[in-house]
Amino acid sequence: MPDSIAPLDALRWHLDAGADEVIAETPTDWTQVTPVPSLRAPVRGLRAPTNPETPQPRAAKVPEPWQGGPAIAAPPPPLLGPAAIEGHARSAAAQAPSLEALAQTIAGFNDCPLKFTAMNLVFGDGNPDSGIMLIGEAPGEDEDRQGKPFVGASGKLLDLILTRVGLDRDRVYITNILPWRPPGNRSPTPAEVATCLPFVARHIELVNPKVLILLGGTAAKTILGRNEGITRIRGKWFDYTATGLGHTIPALPTYHPAYLLRSPLQKRDAWCDWLKFKAKFI
Ligand code: URA
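A: This is the predicted complex of the input protein with uracil.
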């Protein structure tokens, strides 16, 4: 980049180069960062001498932090296996007696690497006493920045839908399957979902809503424990068994607002789903 350049031109230059997202509060000169040795280079002397004739397996490419790889500042990955991490999350969640306590528990949970790439924890928003609980997939860029669910483009569409059924943000409660943004808005991995599921399950128990609306395939499949895609199960009523409450909660899967923004033709079906909900609960 040339030395003297107007700030706006410099910004444009970065955008054109693909740097369209802020990932930290302060700039980092990546050319000066010493790579984490265990991630990028074998420890000297630990490798057996290799025969140059033998084809060697290629070293796995570790994605850079800005490609969704481990952040330089993050602590080492957890030593626990997936089952132990899930068990850890389950026992931590079970001990939270209130929503505030659950938010604190999640904020202090270090076994989900997403915590270390996200800017903020996105716990929930709205009125937990409203009886209506909406569950989405995961925070996006705007939600991560503001620490609130559904405040970006899909949140605007959700607000519109809520208005049309006679509701607003103060008459529903909203959360997500994952409380941290996956880097670059990628889809959550099964391991991330499994790790965070005990927190969502406890979240539902503590809110104890009259009805659950599951926004999109990830929320629907995760909460209902089903394999079918959202197209097959949307608009049908299911019973969610809230183990800790000892009763079931009616749950309605529907399309995710972000999907409706990409596929507006599906808005008609989504509206039918919301009318089903309205007929029963409004
Ligand atoms: N998409 C989601 O699933 N949740 C949000 O909070 C925002 C976008």
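The domain at 82-281 is CATH 3.40.470.10 (Uracil-DNA Glycosylase, subunit E). Residues 136-140, 143, 149-150, 152, 154, 176, 258 surround uracil (CB under 6 Å).
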